[in-house]
Amino acid sequence: MGNSGFHGSSIDIFETTEKNCMDSSHFLAWIDRTACLLRNEFGKYTKIVFVINNAPWHNRLTNDTMPPKRSWRKEYIIQWLNAHNINIPVKAAKTELLEIPMKNLPEKRYEIDEAAKKYNVDILRNSHSTKACKKTAKKNVHSNFGLRAPYKLPLNENDLCEQHRTEIENEWYRSINNDQNKSYWKPVGCLHYLFIMTDERPIQITSTLHGDNPQNHPNASVGISVLLERISVLRNDNIALQEQIVQNVLQFQQQEKQTDEILEKTLSHLSMTNDNLTIENNNLKEEVSNLKHQMNRLIEDKNQLQIENNILKQQVNDLQ
Question: Is the dihedral of CA 222, 223, 224, 226 positive or negative?
Fold first, then answer.
């Protein structure tokens, strides 16, 4: 987060059914993606620092600085020693080979540090998580109370009944002044404010998904659980929508298939009709051709008759 609050584009929220689902590969990908995003957004010279709390997935070593494991086979250990230019004793046993890297370990380099370094982003490791800070503040308060009271208030609330614990706490509150009370609970109040800010961003995302006003959201104090629930609802709606789309596509494909069959039958019928018309046309052409031949023969016969008639007329004239 920066001066303007949480950086929405870098928040990574995902749903899982497994406990402790985060792993070093997922976190490394987030570091690389977010470092690149922030560097492009804030420019080349802006100071960017990632604060992490040393969770197991934050501390995976690079391959070249990772020491050999006891489960490795002997030849793998020898390869590691050769890669780091370490002399190997002749005929050394596996246990002896494992002792050599421990005395010659290279300087630790972490994968997330190397990923952030590409974008000139620093990694700051905090030895205590936010939850640990809260527990520390609570322990300090109870420790101070133990110095003032003739008995000790157990840290485990189940060790006392509700009424007894309330009486002890009220007695302690009456024994201190207002300034002391503020100094004791101020760190806890700061952490509580941090928790509220942490929950505010998921609520804004949830409200954006539903088009609500975050200030008027009925579940504004729930936070991440509400967001995951809303995401689950949206995912289910998306699945239902996909199923409906698939159903519509299948229905359209079926209608298209039926239309293709009708068109195929129609084209086949038209083709047959066209063939029949072609045959009839050819027959008509033959009949016309025959009629022309007959007409030509009739014309020839007519001409022949005219010639014969002229000859007869000539003969009659000669006889006269």
Answer: positive
Tens of pLDDT, residue by residue over 65-97, are 888 888 888 888 888 888 888 888 878 888 888
| Average pLDDT for 241-256 | 85
Q: What is the mean pLDDT of the chain?
A: 75
Which residue did the predictor score with more confidence, 255 or 231? 255
**What radius of gyration do the chain's Cα atoms show?**
48
- pLDDT tens by residue, 116-130: 999 999 888 875 544
Enumerate the domain spans of the chain: 129-222, 223-292
CA angle 64-82-90, nearest 5°? 145
Q: CB of 116 within 8 A of CB of 27?
A: no
Neighbour-count burial of 22, counting CB atoms closer than 10 A to its CB (0-12 exposed, 13-18 middle, 19+ buried): middle
**What tokens were used for 303?**
């001409």
Residue pair 89/74 in contact (Cβ under 8 Å)? The answer is no
Residue from 188, 219, 191 nearest 203 by CA: 219
Distance CA(243)–CA(75), nearest Å, equals 54
* pTM for this predicted structure: 0.39
Mapping DSSP to helix (H, G, I), strand (E, B) and coil, where does residue 52 land?
strand
* 3-class DSSP state of 122: strand
- Sequence length of the chain is 320
Q: Which residues have a Cβ under 8 Å from the Cβ of 165 and sit 6 or more positions away?
A: 153, 157
